[in-house]
Design a protein that fits this description.
The protein is an alpha+beta fold. It folds into two domains: 1-74, Arc Repressor Mutant, subunit A (Orthogonal Bundle); 77-132, Ferric-uptake regulator, C-terminal dimerisarion domain (Dna Ligase, domain 1, 2-Layer Sandwich), CATH 3.30.1490.190. The chain has four helices and five strands. The strands form two sheets. The chain has a three-stranded mixed β-sheet with strand order 4-3-5, with no helix packed on it. Strand 3 and strand 4 form a beta hairpin.
């Protein structure tokens, strides 16, 4: 029997914040946004609901090596690029390669279910500010 999680008010508030921020926000940025209007919502509640929303596929978690994860309101497969200087994450304008996993040479016997791919570089703003 599958246990269905209830859709709480806090979960709705966190999801609406991810959509409203619209810029691949970190949990801290999402918490700051939520707490401005809802000071009784704790940081732990925001983190827990981000986890649940991403696990359910309502939002996308972007794992970021050596930095905070980011969350995207776009819940379909697409790629991202992270600025090495300021840490911001942006969408990459290119077609998603749905069959990439089919072309991977799998010498270790893994059953590959998917992948996360985040490009890295320096964003135009940091380039303009000579933060290269």
């Amino acid at each position: 029997m599958k246990i269905r999680k209830r859709n709480t008010i806090q979960r709705r508030i966190v999801e609406e914040a991810v959509v409203a921020i619209h810029s691949h926000a970190t949990p801290e940025e999402i918490y700051a946004y939520v707490s401005a209007d809802h000071p009784n919502v704790s940081k732990a509640t925001v983190y827990r609901n981000l986890k649940e929303l991403s696990e359910s596929g309502k939002i996308t978690r972007i794992p970021t090596p050596n930095g905070a994860d980011h969350y995207d309101h776009k819940n379909y497969p697409h790629y991202h690029v992270r600025c090495e200087k300021c840490g911001k994450v942006f969408d990459v304008d290119m077609p998603y390669m749905y069959h990439l996993v089919d072309n991977i040479s799998n010498k270790h016997g893994f059953k590959i279910n998917g992948y996360d791919l985040v490009f890295s570089g320096v964003c135009p703003e940091c380039q303009a500010n000579k933060i290269v």
